[in-house]
Design a protein that fits this description.
The protein is of the alpha+beta class. The protein is built from three helices and seven strands, in the order E-H-H-E-E-E-E-E-E-H.
């Protein structure tokens, strides 16, 4: 599975960057997030509950920050696993300051799907992932306005 897209925030990069690393802020941004905790300076664990067709279930998450160039670039690796299957992979993003207090985020990710999820059409899974990412980024944008 591969995902690549972009999102434009209506807030400056200096407001977006710190929110990405704040577990309390992130928990409210991740759709279905029930728990998220920072277990080391570069590692997070959590639990999400999804209620989308074909992926309904509770998932345990693990994310590790692998590389960071503040305030513009970050590379993560992680795993999401639950009854319906698991996804293990990497994700990165780049933040670019635009004029008038806007920020462009270019992001990409790739992962290996296993278990029953792996039997589903990859475009279907990519569509679900894109929907969840866009929902989370829209919430992040709202939070940056406060």
């Amino acid at each position: 599975m591969k995902i690549a897209n972009h999102y434009t925030f209506t807030a400056p990069r200096e407001r977006i960057w710190p929110l990405i690393y704040d577990p309390a802020a992130l928990a409210g941004l991740i759709p279905g997030c029930e728990k998220l905790e920072q277990v080391s300076p570069d590692e997070y664990r959590g639990q999400i509950q999804l209620r989308l067709p074909a992926v309904v279930g509770t998932y345990q998450t693990y994310v590790k920050l692998v590389e960071r160039e503040e305030p513009s670039y970050c590379l993560f690796e992680g795993e999401v696993s639950g009854g319906p299957g698991s996804v293990k992979g990497t994700a990165s993003f780049r933040l670019e300051a635009l004029g008038e207090g806007e920020t462009l985020m270019n992001y990409e990710g790739q992962g290996i799907i296993s278990g029953p999820l792996g039997q589903l059409n990859s475009r279907f899974i990519e569509g679900i992932a894109n929907t969840l990412i866009k929902q989370g980024l829209a919430r992040l944008n709202q939070q940056a306005q406060k």
